[in-house]
Amino acid sequence: MDTDRRRVIEIVNLQNKWRREQCVNLIASESLMSPLAERLFVSDFEGRYNEHSGPERHYEGTKFSYEIEEICNELFRKNFITRYADVRPISGAIANLIIYAALTKPGDIIVGLGIPNGAHISHTRWGVAGIRGLKNVDVAFNVATMNIDVDKTVEIIKKASPKLVMLGASMFLFPEPIREIKEQINPKIKIIYDAAHVFGLVYNKVFQRPFDEGADIITSSTHKTFQGPQGGIIIGNYKLLHEDWKKIDTAIFPGTLSNTHIHRFPALAITALEMNKFGRAYAEQVVKNAKALGRALFDRGFKVLCPHLGFTESHQLILDVRKHGGGQYVAKQLARCNIICNKMALPQDSPHDATHNPSGIRLGVQELTRWGMKEPDMATVAEFWKRAMIDKEPTERIKYDIIAFKKKFNKILYCFNPQKALHELEKVG
Length: 429
Ligand code: DSN
What we know:
Elements: H1 2-21, E1 24-25, H2 35-39, E2 52-53, E3 56-57, H3 63-80, E4 84-86, H4 92-103, E5 109-112, H5 128-131, E6 135-138, E7 141-142, E8 147-148, H6 150-160, E9 164-167, H7 178-184, E10 190-194, H8 199-203, H9 210-213, E11 217-223, E12 227-236, H10 242-256, H11 264-299, E13 303-304, E14 316-320, H12 327-336, E15 339-340, E16 342-344, H13 351-355, E17 360-364, H14 366-370, H15 375-389, H16 395-407, H17 418-428
């Protein structure tokens, strides 16, 4: 028993030291909360319930739970200039399930990107869309631009008559043609924009403006480029009919969720407030860093997709690494050097290759940006890649240099001064 207890504590310490102090973290879906958000993540809210439909609450003891939830909702309503925001979904996939429960019936069709083109699993029959009994039809995808082919996709939508079009993706380099699609399809078909990967960029208005461009609803997680606690959110366009928002409210509770994990709301509110103050500079630097890393890897001989388009307009880069042994091999080899990233299926991969050793690697620079890295540091990261995958230097030597490199970046930026904020917290306490 004692051994297990010691090991649990040790594991947490090892994880903190390894991933925070010794690694170059490049997984595009991960995040790093600010010190203040992290400090507020654990509280009494952790063990409490606050089930409700609209204002009708089913438990007592919820006056502060209600207030913190409303502070969060209001921060997002203000940012997206709408009456409709709900932070209760506990993840991005659950946010999508809620939309399906509210706005579709089993047997309905949805159109999405499709797994080979980078769709999130929850937009497909293999994920929560399948649990709702939906059938997914894929858009037409232009591999040269890594984006949706509008004309062919409009044809597909007209033929399939879907209830919803699910935009947004897990492989997400460029703004999607929301406006062009919206203008050409039946206005009754709702466009849902799953912003999960780019939410921190969208929130700070450096990627695309989904509502201005015609999306009816945004679903998202709150923990990728928006570097808050893990969770989900649904935001409605101000033009959405109130009766549709009511259906979503009912689909949240009692439809899909019981408890809503209240303890994440203080951290979520702090992250939104930090984004309001520092987010624009952060988001702009994320995109600059992604482009700089793309250029630096390309110049060192790596096949980074879309050089003719500046590689990316988001936090992500996609590399075709077939000549280096495939995505699975490369990701594992880099991990031996403490460079953490993930394999990625590319549109041309067969289903077998996609799940075993796909052609691609996906990178995201949001965490490196948060640690204060800028464009010249991206060249250093690319050099580590080259040493690992082209020069094939011993992994231990590269790891040693990466640990030394990471030591220079030991403060989380684009957030409230933690000492000052925590001091204030003690006074408030
Ligand atoms: N599957 C995650 C990713 O894109 O990494 C998102 O849920």
